[in-house]
């Protein structure tokens, strides 16, 4: 009998608890009306379940926020990890592509300086003067047609002798020496067309002074026309250069500082350079 009463009370309490949880979870709680089944429950029970429900909601809300923050943190860390790998790779790829164009421009400057020295006897550190020279000067060129055979060379005939015979116009001697198809004529050609065929014109040659991918900056041009070697022979020197900062300024700043620091520690020029004003190097570039 007593067990039967206890089971009934336990069932009744379970029903009240179930009903209370259902009402709270679905927002039907209104303690100011007798229609609400919770009104019949003891006040302490209501307070307990309300508090438990509030704590439960706060817990799940905080748990959701933590999950969101965790996912965001993982995504952010993944992004930084990927960028730490891709940034140096992209920097090197862009640097290599740009330097191909800059190297070619430095080679052009070297070609122009050598022609200037050939005619003037010294190099110039003034781009305006160099460009003016290219626009106004002519290049002496020997137009060659035909060549001497081994038999003619063995007979003692030289290029100089053959050219002299041809220029004399002595037809019988020309035939006797077998020089009917031999020509050596001197011509003076436009400097720009001669040394930069189909590359520059008088209108575009000014670009030779500009560093590609820079803010219209010019290459740094230096000369040392008073250099003497160990045997006291005077050897004019020149160098043209482009610092990393001039053509990589718009890339990742830390990567730029890193390569400058490496070159500085190695006591090398932080950029591209052709020639040297410190000692003869056959006008070689630092990439060669």
**Largest sheet, if any?**
3 strands, antiparallel
Level of helix content? 40-55%
Average pLDDT: 81
Radius of gyration: 45 Å
Query: What's the helix-strand series?
Result: HHHEHHHEHEEHHE
**Shape from CA axes?**
elongated
- Which spans have pLDDT < 50 for at least 5 consecutive residues? 25-43
Helix and strand content put the structural class at mainly alpha
Q: Give the total of beta strands.
A: 5
How are the strands of the largest sheet arranged?
3-4-5
- Proportion of strand residues: 5-15%
Distance between the termini: 107 Å
- Please report the number of helical segments: 9
Task: Please write out the topology.
Blueprint (H helix, E strand, L loop, with lengths): L1 H24 L17 H78 L6 H10 L1 E8 L4 H5 L4 H10 L2 H6 L6 E8 H5 L24 E5 L12 E7 H5 L4 H13 L5 E5 L13
Antiparallel strand pairs: 1-2, 3-4, 4-5
Helix pairs in contact: 1-2
Summarize the structure.
This protein has 288 residues and is mostly helical.
Structure in words:
The protein has a three-stranded antiparallel sheet with strand order 3-4-5. Strands 1-2 form a two-stranded antiparallel sheet. Helix content is 54%, strand content 11%. It has 288 residues and is mainly alpha-helical. The chain starts with a helix and ends in a 13-residue tail after the last strand.
């Amino acid at each position: 009998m007593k067990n039967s009463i206890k089971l009934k009370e336990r069932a009744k309490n379970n029903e009240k608890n179930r009903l209370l949880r259902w009402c709270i979870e679905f927002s039907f709680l209104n303690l100011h009306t007798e229609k609400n089944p919770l009104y019949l429950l003891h006040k302490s029970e209501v307070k307990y379940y309300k508090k438990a429900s509030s704590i439960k909601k706060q817990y799940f809300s905080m748990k959701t926020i933590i999950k969101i923050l965790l996912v965001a943190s993982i995504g952010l860390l993944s992004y930084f990890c990927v960028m730490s790998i891709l940034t140096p790779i992209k920097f090197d790829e862009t640097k290599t592509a740009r330097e191909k164009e800059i190297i070619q421009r430095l080679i052009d400057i070297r070609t122009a300086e050598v022609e200037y020295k050939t005619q003037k006897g010294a190099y110039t550190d003034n781009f305006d003067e160099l460009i003016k020279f290219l626009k106004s000067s002519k290049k002496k060129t020997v137009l060659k047609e035909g060549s001497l055979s081994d038999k003619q060379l063995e007979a003692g005939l030289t290029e100089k002798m053959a050219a002299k015979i041809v220029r004399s116009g002595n037809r019988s001697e020309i035939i006797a020496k077998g020089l009917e198809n031999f020509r050596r004529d001197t011509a003076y050609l436009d400097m720009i067309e001669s040394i930069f065929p189909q590359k520059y014109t008088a209108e575009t040659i000014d670009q030779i002074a500009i560093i590609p991918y820079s803010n219209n900056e010019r290459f740094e041009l230096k000369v040392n026309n008073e250099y003497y070697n160990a045997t006291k022979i005077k050897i004019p020197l020149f160098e043209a250069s482009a610092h990393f900062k001039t053509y990589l300024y718009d890339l990742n700043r830390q990567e730029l500082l890193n390569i400058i620091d490496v070159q500085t520690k190695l006591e090398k020029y932080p950029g591209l350079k052709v020639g040297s004003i410190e000692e003869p190097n056959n006008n070689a570039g630092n990439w060669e």
